[in-house]
Each structure stands twice: as structure tokens, then as C-alpha cells.
Amino acid sequence: SIYIYIHYIYIYIHTHELTHIYDPHMSSFASSSVAARSVLVQNKVASSGKRNQSKRVSATTQISASMAHKQRKMDIAEAKKLLDKTKTFIFDCDGVIWKGDSLIDGVPETIDMLKSMGKQLFFITNNSTKSRAGYLKKFTSLGLNITAENIFSSSFAAAAYLESIKFDGKVYVVGETGIGEELDLLGIKWSGCEADKGKEVTLSEGLYMDHDKDVSAVIVGFDRHFNYHKIQQATLCIRENPGCLFIATNTDAVTHLTSAQEWAGNGSMVGCIKGSTQQEPIVVGKPSSFMLDYIAEKYSIPKDEICMVGDRLDTDILFGKDGGLSTLLVLSGVTTEDRLLSPKNDIVPDFYTNQLSDLLEAK
User: Which of 50-54, 334-338, 344-348 has the lowest mean pLDDT?
Assistant: First the structure.
């Protein structure tokens, strides 16, 4: 039995080393261009990891089964310790701060408490439909006093990534206004987006769709007006324009468009383009480390002083754990307690609780 136990430990370490390419406790990268290169490496590794996933199921199930009973809800004493050691909190938005356009109970009071304690707060969302300025309007409309500098959306991340690699070409955008607004701020030329909203493709004998030969990057973000014209344009640019980059703001399976239910996320749009091009995208949103490295470098924040608070295991919590952060899962969004404690789950947060306002009890 001791041999089997050691064997499983070996398998666990071996199968997880793919997700830790660099030192997860590194305080920052030397430059944003290094952070950009890390995105490329991680995406190549992620692709490799998927091919080997089926070989790891048995070992992962054994390990995660032993992990499940170790997970517990955060009590008041643990909450106080977390507040004492954490200088910076990074929050996901959908499912943590709000659901759709509805603020989650106790959020304003919790944010005010953390500010009064001198904590630095950042808000990171994978939703690319708005720019940072657009999200600032949403925070303000919900009565939250947040500055644009504290907001990081995947639309911003896509533009920042292009800036970090000194991109000087043209972009075709599958997505909504947020991506275009962020590209405009950097002076990057682009097409698509709202301009291709409602365009229909009527197939006929010999139909040929032309595409922009000047496009050297395609960004795919969440798009409520996704259509076949956009799929074909993105596909042609990626497949036929030499060196054209395929960038995904995120690959979330579902999202909170309303507080009533979950809706298909950007993973469905990215999946279409992956299928037609047979290429893996460069992902700049969570769980990619790009936004974390950008924040840690820009504000000189040691990563071991940061706590990531989110509602998703495969994006928020994985983002935090891979980055060497403390992690707190809240059950106010996508993840249920049953899913968290399931033997099939191998992503384990440091703590979990019902919702963000539970931190108020530790004041």
C-alpha cells in the first residue's frame, strides 16, 4: 500500500508540472514582453496537456478524492488571518461582485471595509464586451466607487498583449465594442466587430468571400451577434494570411448575462474558430497569467501578498494557484459546493465561502 501511495504522489507531481512553467512565486516579470512570451508558452503547454489528459484521469481521480475532505468553509478565525496577511485583493466580477446587472448582497460594505483597512483592490473580468471605461460606468451605476486603473478586462488584456509584442499590423475583431475601444486607445487599426453585425451569408454556386489581406491578428471575444460571416472572415484571415495571430480573450464555457441563468460563454465562439482553423489560440484572459503579471509588475506587488477571489475553479482559482496567490472561492456564482467537493475536481482553493460579504464577519 505504501508503494501505491508513493506511486500516486509521483504521478500527481509529474502530471501537474506542465502547468508550472516558471516559478509561481516570482514577484514580477522583467518586462511586459516577457509576460507576453509566457502567454505563448503557457498556451502551447495547455494544448500539450489536453492531449495527455485522458492518460491522467485515473491518477487525478485518486488524488482529488483525497483532497475533497480537506476542503472546508472559511471560518471567522481563518478569515481574520487571510485579511491580516493579504495586502492586495483581486476580484473576479461576474458571480463575485454582480450577477448580470444585479449587485450581490453585501458587496459595497465589504469593499468599503477592505478600503478602510488599506487593502489594494483590483477587479479582473474575462468578459470582453466592455472596455475599462465601459466597466467603470457599470461599477458607478451600481454605486461602487472604483477607478478605471483598478479594472482589468480581457478586452484590455488583448490590446495590452499586442502592445507588449510591438504589434504594428491590423486586427480583425470578432466581439463587441469593448475590444475596439481598447484597440483605439493604442492606435491599433482594426475592422469587424459591430460593423459585421447582422451580415448574412447567402450561399450560391461559386460564391467566394473576399477577406482583408492586411489583417495580421484576429481577436475573438464574447459576441452576442456572432454569425457565419464573422466565422468565415476570421477563418480566412488566420488560415490564409501568413503569420496571422489567433487571440482569444478567454475560453469561458458559460457567463452571467442575466441573474436568472447561465448563458453560453466565449468558449463557444472560440471553439468555432478553433474548429475551422485547426489552430489553438493565444489566450490572454484568466487562467492565463498575462493580466496577473501585468498588475504585479506595474504596481510592484509581491504575488504572495495577493489573494484571488473568484467563483470559477477552472479560471479564477486556477489563475490564482498557478500565479502563487492565496485563493478564495465564493459560491455566489458558477461553482456549487457539490462540484467543489466532487472527487472529479482537482482544483482546490485555499478557502471557500458562500459569498464575498462573509469577510465582514472578520472585521
Answer: 50-54
Which residue of the set 23, 75, 84, 94 is catalytic? Answer: 94
**pLDDT value at 200 more than 50:** yes
- Asked if 350 is an active-site residue, the reply is no
Q: Which of 23, 92, 105, 112 is catalytic?
A: 92
Q: Does pLDDT of 327 surpass 50?
A: yes
Residue reference for cell 466587430: 193
94 is catalytic: yes
Q: What are phi and psi of 56, to 5 degrees?
A: -105, -5
Average of per-residue pLDDT values in the chain: 85
State how far the Cα of 163 lies from the Cα of 102, in Å rounded to an integer: 34
**Whether residue 184 has pLDDT greater than 90:** yes
Helical segments of 90-173, H only:
107-116, 132-141, 154-164
Contacts of 192-201 with CB under 8 Å at 24 or more apart are 192/230, 192/233, 194/225, 196/225, 196/227, 196/229, 196/230, 196/233, 197/225, 197/227, 198/225, 198/227, 199/227, 199/229, 199/230, 200/227, 200/228, 200/229, 201/227, 201/228, 201/229, 201/232
How deeply is 34 buried, as exposed, middle or buried, from its count of CB atoms within 10 A (0-12, 13-18, 19+)? middle
